[in-house]
Design goal:
The complex is a heterodimer of chains A (528) and B (108). Chain A is an alpha/beta fold and 528 residues long. Chain A is built from 14 helices and 19 strands. Helix content of chain A is 42%, strand content 20%. In chain A, the strands form four sheets. In chain A, strands 4-10-14-9-16-17 form a six-stranded mixed beta sheet, covered by helices on one side. In chain A, strand 6 and strand 7 form a beta hairpin. Chain A is elongated, with a radius of gyration of 41 Å. The N and C termini of chain A lie far apart (123 Å). With 108 residues, chain B is α+β, with helices and mostly antiparallel strands. Chain B is built from four helices and three strands. Chain B has a three-stranded antiparallel beta sheet with strand order 1-3-2. Classes of the chains: A alpha/beta (528), B alpha+beta (108). Chains A and B meet through helix 2, helix 3 and helix 4 of A and helix 1 and helix 3 of B.
C-alpha cells in the first residue's frame, strides 16, 4: 500500500492511501445516496464533508497519510447513514446502487464552461472527442445551440459528492489528477498530470491546443466586455451630465429656442403650469429617480464588465429595481390623476356675420407677441403652439391662430373659438370663458391679438383660442402691421387634395381662390 | 416489541427540541451541540445532527455565520432566529404538558 492519492475535502488537501480512499469513497457515496435527493441535501453533504476534514485534521495535522484506521474512526464518530435514523420521513428510496452516475459540468476540466469535460467524465471518455464533435457541429450551427442548452441545463459539479457522481467508477483515477487544479482559473491554465488513464498522448496534445484556443477565446471575450463596459460607463456618465445640464443648469446648447422639437429647457418651469402645484416636487423627484437610477445601473454594469468582479449586489440591485418600479408606478398614478384634468374638452364660439362683404379685408393685430413681457417660453413642434410664461404675474400667454377658409355662401363670417379642457365638461366650459382674447371688427378691418391670456394662477388646460374666418372667393386679405399670427388655411395641392397648412403671416396680401388661400406676389399691383 | 427501537423512537421525538434548547443558551458550532447531545445520550452518532440542522435552518428557525478556525476548515456557528425562539417556546410548553400528562398517568 505505498500508493497515495490526493483528495480535497472542505478545501483542504489530504493524502490518503488507496485502501482508505476506497472506504472513504464508499462512505461518501452512501451519504450522497442518503441525502443527495432530499431537500437541502447538498448542504448536509457539505457539512458532513467539512466535519470529516476536521476530524482527519485533528488526527493527522496537515502532514501524514490518512489510513484506513483513520477513516474507520471517523465513520464511528459520524456514523453510517443507516445509523443516522432521525425520524424523518424517507424522501427517497434508499439507493443501493453504489455508483450512480450523473452528468454535470466539470469545473476542473473546462475550456468554456466544462460541458465537454462533464460529458467526458460521464461517458468515461476523453473530453477532447466531444470538443472536436462540438466544433464540427458548431460549423453547421446546430452545435452552438446544443452546447448552450447543455450549458444551461447541466449543473456544475461543486461538491465532492457531485464530483464522485460525475466520475463514477473512474473517480479514483481522475481524482488524483484533477484535485490539484484550481478550478476557479477561468483561463484554463493548469498544471497537467499524465495520470489520466484514458488520455492518449495525441488526445493530450489536442486538449492542450483546445486549452490554448480557449484562452484566446476568453481573452477576446474579455476585451469585448471591457470595450462594452467602457461604452456603458461613458454613456451613463454622459446621460447624467446631460440630465444635470438640462434640468439643473438649463444649459441651452442643444435645444435652442429656434430649433424645432419640444423645447426641453423650460419644461420644469412649464410643469408648474401643467399640473397642480402640489404635484410638481413629486413629479420632479420621481422623474429624477426614474431617469438617474438606470444611468447609475449602466455605469455599474460597465464598471463590472471592465474589472470583472463579482459582488454581492443582488439585494442592492433588487432594492434599486423595486424603488425604480415604485417610482414609475407613482409617476404613472400622478400622471393619470393629472391627466384626468384634461379628460373633457369644451369649445365656446361667437359668430359675427358681416352685413356687407368687403372686397378687401384688413387685418390688424393690436397686442403683439413682440411686446410681451415674459421670462420663459415653451414651444411645441413647428411653432404651431407657443406658450409664454410670465412668472411674476403667474400668467400664461399663448399664441392665437387665424384660420381662413372659403365661405360656402357669399357672406363673410368671423367666428371666435375658445377651447379648453377640464375634469368635467362644465369645468372645461367654464375655463374657456376665462380665457382673455381681444378681437373685433371695425368697418372692413378685423382687429385681433397675437396671443390670448390664461388668467393668473390658472394652470394650463390645453387652451387654444383663435378666429375662424370664412371669406368668399375673390376676397383679399391684407395684413397691415406685420402681424406674427399663425395663419391656418386649407388649400388644394397639385393632386387636387385639400391640405391643412399653416404659415406665419407677414406683411402680405392673400387672396381666396377656388382652390384655397393663395399669397399674392409682392410686386403685383392688381390688388393694391 | 423491540425495546431498542422503542427507545430510539422516543429520542427521535425530542431531538429537534433538544437542538433548539442547546442553541437557546448561546450560538454554537455543530461539534458543541454534538458534545452536549452526546453527553445527554440523546444521540449516538454525529451524522444524525447535520440533516436536522440543515432542515431547521431551511425552516427559518436557525441561522448561521462562518467563522474561521485556527486549524481546519471554517466552521458554521448556528444561532436561533426570532422565529426559532417562538418555535422553541411552543415546544417548551408542549413538553411541559407532555411531562405532566405522563406523570398523571404513572402516578394514578
Amino acid at each position: 500500500m505505498d500508493k497515495t492519492i490526493n483528495i480535497n475535502l472542505g478545501g483542504i488537501l489530504f493524502q490518503i492511501d488507496e485502501e482508505a480512499f476506497r472506504k472513504l469513497r464508499d462512505y461518501l457515496q452512501s451519504i450522497n445516496n442518503r441525502f443527495g435527493n432530499s431537500q437541502g441535501g447538498n448542504e448536509t453533504i457539505e457539512d458532513i464533508e467539512l466535519r470529516i476534514a476536521e476530524i482527519f485534521q485533528s488526527q493527522k495535522g496537515l502532514a501524514g497519510v490518512i489510513t484506513i484506521e483513520n477513516v474507520a474512526a471517523m465513520i464511528s464518530i459520524i456514523g453510517k447513514p443507516e445509523d443516522f435514523d432521525h425520524g424523518e420521513p424517507e424522501t427517497a428510496a434508499p439507493e443501493y446502487q453504489s455508483q450512480k452516475k450523473r452528468m454535470y459540468r466539470n469545473p476542473d476540466d473546462s475550456i468554456i464552461s466544462g460541458v465537454c469535460g462533464g460529458i467526458g467524465a460521464y461517458l468515461d471518455n476523453d473530453p477532447v472527442l466531444f470538443r472536436i464533435l462540438f466544433i464540427i457541429s458548431a460549423m453547421f450551427g446546430v452545435g452552438i445551440f446544443i452546447y448552450i442548452a447543455l450549458w444551461i441545463a447541466l449543473p456544475v459539479a461543486r461538491t465532492d459528492a457531485q464530483k464522485r457522481a460525475m466520475y463514477g467508477e473512474s473517480y479514483h483515477t481522475s481524482i488524483n489528477q484533477n484535485r490539484q487544479f484550481n478550478s476557479n482559473q477561468l483561463t484554463g491554465s493548469s498544471q497537467y498530470n499524465t495520470g489520466y488513464k484514458s488520455e492518449s498522448g495525441i488526445g493530450n496534445a489536442i486538449n492542450e491546443i483546445f486549452r490554448a484556443i480557449g484562452r484566446v477565446f476568453y481573452i477576446i471575450l474579455r476585451i469585448l466586455l471591457i470595450m462594452i463596459g467602457v461604452v456603458l460607463v461613458l454613456t451613463g456618465f454622459l446621460s447624467i451630465l446631460c440630465f444635470v445640464m438640462v434640468v439643473v443648469f438649463k444649459f441651452p446648447g442643444v435645444y435652442s429656442i429656434e430649433s424645432s422639437g419640444i423645447n426641453l429647457i423650460n419644461f420644469t418651469d412649464f410643469l408648474n403650469y401643467l399640473v397642480s402645484p402640489s404635484a410638481v416636487p413629486w413629479i420632479t423627484f420621481l422623474t429624477s429617480i426614474v431617469l438617474i437610477l438606470p444611468m447609475i445601473a449602466i455605469i455599474y454594469w460597465g464598471v463590472k464588465m471592465i474589472f470583472w468582479f463579482s459582488a454581492r449586489d443582488g439585494v442592492v440591485s433588487l432594492v434599486a429595481f423595486v424603488v425604480w418600479v415604485m417610482a414609475i408606478s407613482a409617476l404613472t398614478v400622478i400622471g393619470l390623476n393629472e391627466g384626468v384634468s384634461f379628460a373633457h374638452s369644451a369649445k365656446t364660439s361667437a359668430e359675427i356675420v358681416l352685413p356687407a362683404t368687403p372686397d378687401t379685408l384688413y387685418i390688424v393685430t393690436d397686442n403683439k407677441i413682440a411686446d410681451l413681457k415674459y421670462e420663459k417660453d415653451f414651444v411645441l413642434p413647428h411653432k404651431e403652439y407657443s406658450v409664454y410664461i410670465n412668472d411674476d404675474k403667474k400668467e400664461l400667454y399663448i399664441r392665437s391662430y387665424l384660420a381662413v377658409d372659403r365661405a360656402d355662401n357669399k357672406s363673410t363670417t368671423i367666428e371666435a373659438r375658445k377651447y379648453a379642457s377640464g375634469r368635467t365638461e362644465t369645468e372645461a366650459l367654464k375655463r374657456t370663458e376665462g380665457l382673455l382674447f381681444n378681437y373685433g371688427i371695425k368697418g372692413d378691418t378685423l382687429h385681433l391679438d397675437e396671443y390670448f391670456t390664461s388668467p393668473a394662477g390658472r394652470k394650463w388646460s390645453a387652451d387654444n383660442v383663435g378666429i375662424n374666418l370664412y371669406i368668399p372667393t375673390g376676397t383679399v386679405l391684407k395684413f397691415e402691421n406685420n402681424p406674427r399670427i399663425l395663419l391656418h388655411s386649407s388649400f388644394r395641392n397639385e393632386s387636387n387634395e385639400y391640405l391643412e397648412s399653416s404659415w406665419e403671416s407677414g406683411n402680405s396680401l392673400w387672396v381666396m381662390t377656388n382652390s384655397g388661400l393663395e399669397q399674392v406676389p409682392e410686386k403685383s399691383s392688381k390688388f393694391k | 416489541m423491540d425495546l431498542e427501537n422503542n427507545k430510539a423512537q422516543m429520542r427521535k421525538g425530542i431531538l429537534e427540541y433538544c437542538i433548539l434548547s442547546v442553541l437557546s443558551r448561546n450560538s454554537c458550532y455543530a461539534s458543541d451541540i454534538i458534545k452536549e447531545l452526546k453527553e445527554a445520550e440523546v444521540i449516538v452518532v454525529e451524522g444524525t445532527l447535520y440533516p436536522l440542522l440543515t432542515r431547521q435552518k431551511n425552516a427559518g428557525l436557525l441561522s448561521y455565520r462562518w467563522e474561521e478556525s485556527l486549524q481546519g476548515p471554517p466552521r458554521k456557528y448556528y444561532e436561533l432566529t426570532e422565529e426559532g425562539r417562538k418555535y422553541l417556546a411552543e415546544l417548551d410548553k408542549s413538553w411541559q404538558e407532555l411531562v405532566e400528562s405522563v406523570n398523571l398517568i404513572r402516578t394514578r
